[in-house]
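User: Protein folding is very new to me. Would you mind checking the protein record under this note? It all follows right here:
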Amino acid sequence: MQRGDYLLSQLDVLESESIHIFREVAAEFEKPVLLFSGGKDSIVMLRLAEKAFWPAPIPFPVMHVDTGHNFPEVIEFRDRRVAETGVRLVVASVQESIDKGRVVEEKGRRASRNRLQTVTLLDAIEEHGFDAAFGGARRDEEKARAKERVVSFRDEFGQWDPKNQRPELWNLFNTRITRGEHVRVFPLSNWTELDIWDYVRREGLELPSIYFAHTRRVFERDGLLLDAQTGFANRGDDEPEFEATVRYRTVGDASCTGAVKSAAESLDAVIEEIAATRITERGQTRADDRTSEAAMEDRKKEGYF
C-alpha cells in the first residue's frame, strides 16, 4: 500500500478552521449575518463563506453598518462585490439613527460617527432578529481583541463582559443563548494582518484601490494622515492640507481613519511592507483607538463590534 504525506500550509490550516466556524454557526443559529464593510478582512470572510457552502449560495445576508462618512472607493467596491455573489445586503444607517434621535452627532474638530455605530448595530440586530454576527476582528489588532473568544457572547443589552467569557476547548464552541441574546463570531481570530494579505494574493481577491499607494489630499493630526478629499474630517485652520503618496491599512469612517505614507502599488509590495512593520494597523491608523489603551475595550463593553 502506498502512503504519501499530506501537508497543509499555514493558510490551508487557517482557511479550514474558518470554514469549520462558518459551518458550525450556520448549523447552530437561526439567523446569522456577516458584517461586511468592503474592507480587506470582510472581503476574506466573504470568500471563506463562499467556500464553506459551495456550490450552494451563502445561506445568510451581509450587513454594513454605514456611518455615512465612507470612502467612495469602498462603497463602490462593496456594492459590486455583493452583486457578484448574489448575497442579500442589509444597510444599517447611522444617519437614520441620528434622524430618529437614537444617537446625537458629535460636534467639534475631533467629531466622528465611529462610536455611534454601536446603537445602529444593536438596533439592526434586534430589528432583523439576528442571533449571530460574523465579524472580521483579529487578535493581533490590539489588546481588547485578544480577550475575545471565537464565539463571543453578548447579553440582552448587546454588551460584552470579558470576565464572563465562555471557555472554548479546542474547536468546541458554546452556542447556547436565550431569546434576546446574541453572539459575535470571529472566524479570523487566529489570522494576522500578514495572513490576510497572503490569502488575498493566493486567492486572487480584488480589493478597493485605496489599499494601494495613490496620491491623496491629506492633513496631519496627532501623527496621523487624515483624509482631506471627502470633507468628512473636520480640518482646522492650523492643519494645512497637502498632497502625499499614501495607502490605507484599514478602511472605516473617513473622519478618523488615517493613511500611511507608502509607495506600495502592488500586492507583493504591500506584503513586503507589512512583513517589516512593527506597529499594528489600528495603532497606526485609527485616531479613536489611540485616545487610550482601553478605548476599544470600553466600546466593546457597550456593544461595539
About this structure: Residues 129 and 225 are 39 Å apart (CA to CA). The chain has a mean pLDDT of 88.
